[in-house]
Amino acid sequence: MPGTVLLLAASPLGRGRLVDAAGVLPVLAAVAPSVLSGTDTANVIELVDPLEPQAVLTRLRAAAASPGPLTVYVTGQLHLDRRQHQPHLALARTTPATLRYTALPWHWIREELRLRSATDTALVVDLHADAEAWRHITERGLDLGRTTAVYGRIAPATGRRGLAEPAYMKTVATLLRSGHRPPLGVLHEQAVARIAAEARGNLLLADAGGYVAGGPAGGFVRGAAATGFTPGVVAGGLAQPAVAGGSAPGSLHGGRAGAATSAPRTGEATSAPRPPEATPADPHAGISAAVQEGRHGDAEGIAAWFEAEAVRVYGVASEQALHWSEVRADLAMFAGDAVRSCRAWLDVAETRLAAGQAGDAPAVEAAVDRAHHQWTCIKDTARARELGPALAELRLRVPGRRRGALENVQRQLRQLQAAR
Fold first, then answer.
1. What ranges make up the beta strands (E) of 33-161?
2. Collapsed DSSP state (helix, strand, coil) of residue 152
3. How far is CA 343 from the centre of its chain?
4. Could you tell me how many helices (H) and strands (E) the chain has, helices first?
5. What is the pLDDT of residues 16-73, one digit of tens each?
6. Whether 238 contacts 141, CB under 8 Å
7. Contact 411, 388 (CB under 8 A)
């Protein structure tokens, strides 16, 4: 099965540019697609200094939906949205004043890849962060998702005149030009060894990803250096700063273990739901395989069982349960059931809002945006009329980042009602 490669290199065109992100594309483009992907053949999508975040999202979504292995190479710079305090990848038109509308929210990448398995999904990054984003990441981490293998580095802005070089990604590309792609963990170590002096003081990411039973956060793996190659961790896909002078709590000397803590139970214990006949050790891998083989019922069954378990143990409004609710909403989309997908996303948004999450919280916005998209895909006008008022009500509370979203719903709803 052919693989897919997405090459994304972006940075602002004006004075806000920190790194010459586009300069890495000629080096990466010289690598054979099969080597970039690690498969016999591969399709390569290149995005160089894209202008619109929605355009990037469209390409990313298409790549994430493709069968076979997916490798995403991202080079650029991170900035913090001061309103929501969320990291964003700056695009060509991004300025401090327009960040919220012209940059790519980092969580969009995580969201689009979350249904895939770490066994066939990898993210390779070379990112520079401005002062605010660097402070945020070193204090709170960078959420990279629980089901994506992640390798690379995040460097602080140097403050020196001139543009920084994406040295890590250029080194990765140079190593790949040999015509051989070793396991990404090995490739990462080789790249870091070659830029050891420059990487000092960087946050290095090395997470094989994947699902680990027994803990809500996935698991803990050995991470990389933050200062002078001091050990750090990447926990369940969450890049965390290293602890100077020793290993971070919960880190391992190689390998992986269950999460160190578990969330408190928020509901009464009930009898456990009956699992599918073959509950996979890695449910995301099992779901991904089932979807690619067209076994949508099997994929739904796996996700439904894990959702029920999460509700039983942690409560209906827990992140563990909501994760599986979101997976089921996406599975309905893959199965071509826009009505069920739209309704599921509406339920997720309502649950998050009822739990006290803000209307501009990333997870809430994402749920409403996806409900809106699925609503526009509904062919049955009666069902669209049925779900339209609930979506319009949500849009009043969650306008989202796309200007005119509420007006779009109201206009289409009037057209549907006029067509009775």
1. 42-48, 70-81, 86-89, 104-105, 121-129, 142-143, 149-156
2. strand
3. 23
4. 16, 13
5. 888 999 999 889 989 999 999 998 899 999 999 989 998 999 899 889 888 889 999 9
6. yes
7. no
Strand order in the sheet with 219-222: 142-143, 238-239, 233-235, 219-222, 256-258
Confidence band, pLDDT 50/70/90 cuts, at residue 116: confident
Would you give the distance in Å from CA 171 to the centre of its chain?
Answer: 24
CA-wise closest residue to 130 among 68, 181, 90, 79: 79
Greatest Cα pair distance in the chain: 70
For residue 179, which phi and psi values (nearest 5 degrees)? 95, 5
Tokens of 55: 């355009």
Structural domains of the chain in order of their starting residue, each with its CATH number: 3-258 (3.40.50.1460), 283-418 (1.25.40.10)
CA distance 56 to 66: 16
DSSP of 323-369 = HHHHHHHHHHHHTT-HHHHHHHHHHHHHHHHHTT--TTSHHHHHHHH
| pTM of the model as a whole | 0.65
Nearest to 107 by CA among 142, 134, 72: 142
Q: Which of 289, 29, 321 is nearest to 173 (CA)?
A: 29
**Residues recorded for the chain:** 420
CA atoms within 13 A on the CB side of 353: 19
Residues forming beta bridges with residue 117, ordered by sequence position: none
Q: How far is CA 49 from CA 12, 53, 185, 265, in A?
A: 8, 11, 28, 46
